[in-house]
């Protein structure tokens, strides 16, 4: 089964209504540069080619595992005469968390840390086989409707991400593994964007981030626009509203509680932001999903 996603994959209406999660097998000759506000993890099954993540190119071949963070641009190209076949899974970090505290902890695990961590791994045959089994089991659960389906998907996704974190730990212990060059992308800008994804509930301001990360405020504004594709305010709204959409889909929380949970001071602020960026009210969005 193949799928084509928009250049900016951001709307929960495009994801399964039960939860912010999707998995599929893609056949790709070329997929243009795009971004989305989910985490994305993929595993190559067949074919060869390359992927470019924020200007950093790496090979794609059977056993290549890639983790793309929210708002990172990436592009896929198969080698001439080849087609890339890969498992592809996109999800929101909230899927793996039950409380605000655990959400922050898991978000820090996935989005925090140093910039020299690899975005891809070439797995050994054994690790590739084990990971392919997990992806196939997630795919079968996702396409089925059996009891405990969501619980099993969450457990298998958690196992996948724990394995990825262990691979990251192994990477730091193996100095022989080359670190790809970052090209023109300032690493520190992505520290800011990752910080926003982890701390979006806080009262974030452009001036506050500039002071925290020792940037000139105007320069930081320009760099966020350049690399995230939107300005600081729009990016913060997009991050918060993504989480609001997740809560509207997966919980029975009131709009007021959701507004507080995602960092807005009132339900009125959430209503205004939702209507501006989504074109509907939170209640209409929830009704449309369900």
Task: Characterise the protein shown here.
The protein is an alpha+beta fold and 290 residues long. It is globular and about 50 Å long. The relative contact order is 0.13. The strands form 2 sheets. It has a 5-stranded mixed β-sheet, with no helix packed on it. A 5-stranded antiparallel β-sheet has the order 2-9-4-7-10, covered by helices on one side. Helix 1 (100-111) runs antiparallel to helix 4, helix 7 (232-250) packs across helix 10 (282-289) and helix 8 packs across helix 9. Helices cover 46% and strands 19% of the residues. It folds into 2 domains: 8-173, Jelly Rolls (Sandwich), CATH 2.60.120; 187-289, Homeodomain-like (Arc Repressor Mutant, subunit A). Mean pLDDT is 80; it is low at 1-17 and 175-185. A hairpin with a 2-residue loop joins strand 5 and strand 6.
Q: How do the strands of the widest beta sheet line up side by side?
A: 1-3-8-5-6
The outline comes out as globular
Beta-strand portion reads 15-25%
Helix/strand order: EEEEEEEEEHEHHHHHHHHH
CATH fold name of the largest domain, please? Jelly Rolls
Alpha-carbon Rg, integer: 19 Å
Which structural class do the helices and strands define? alpha+beta
Our count of helices gives 10
Gap between N and C termini = 26 Å
Q: What count of structural domains?
A: 2
Q: Multimeric state of these chains?
A: single chain
Note poorly predicted spans: 1-17, 175-185
Name of the level-1 CATH class of the largest domain? Mainly Beta
Number of strands: 10
Biggest sheet details: 5 strands, mixed
In CATH terms, what is the architecture of the largest domain?
A: Sandwich
What's the CATH H-level superfamily name of the largest domain? Answer: Regulatory protein AraC
Keywords: DNA-binding, Transcription, Transcription regulation
InterPro entries: AraC-bd, Homeodomain-like_sf, HTH-like, HTH_AraC, HTH_AraC-typ_CS, RmlC-like_jellyroll
Protein name: AraC family transcriptional regulator
GO molecular function, one term: sequence-specific DNA binding
């Amino acid at each position: 089964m193949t799928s084509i996603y928009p250049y900016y994959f951001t709307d929960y209406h495009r994801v399964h209504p039960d939860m912010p999660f999707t998995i599929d097998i893609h056949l790709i000759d070329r997929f243009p540069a795009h971004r989305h506000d989910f985490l994305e993890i993929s595993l190559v099954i067949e074919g060869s080619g390359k992927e470019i993540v924020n200007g950093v190119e790496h090979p794609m071949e059977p056993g290549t595992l890639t983790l793309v963070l929210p708002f990172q641009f990436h592009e896929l190209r198969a080698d001439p005469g080849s087609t890339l076949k890969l498992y592809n899974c996109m999800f929101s970090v909230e899927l793996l968390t039950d409380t605000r505290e655990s959400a922050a902890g898991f978000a820090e695990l996935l989005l925090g840390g140093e910039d020299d961590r690899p975005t891809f791994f070439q797995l050994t045959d054994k690790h590739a086989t084990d990971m392919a089994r997990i992806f196939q089991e997630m795919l079968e659960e996702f396409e089925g409707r059996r009891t405990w389906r969501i619980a099993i998907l969450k457990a298998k996704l958690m196992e996948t991400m724990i394995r990825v974190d262990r691979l990251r730990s192994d990477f730091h212990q193996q100095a022989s593994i080359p670190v790809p060059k970052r090209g023109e992308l300032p690493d520190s800008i992505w520290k800011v964007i990752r910080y926003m994804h982890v701390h979006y509930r806080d009262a974030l301001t452009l001036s506050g981030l500039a002071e925290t990360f020792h940037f000139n405020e105007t320069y930081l504004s320009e760099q966020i626009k350049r690399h995230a594709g939107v300005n600081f305010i729009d990016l913060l709204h997009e991050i918060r509203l993504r989480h609001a959409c997740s809560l509207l889909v997966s919980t029975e929380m009131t709009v007021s509680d959701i507004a507080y949970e995602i960092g807005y001071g009132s339900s009125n602020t959430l209503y205004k932001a939702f209507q501006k960026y989504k074109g509907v009210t939170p209640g209409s969005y929830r009704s449309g999903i369900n």
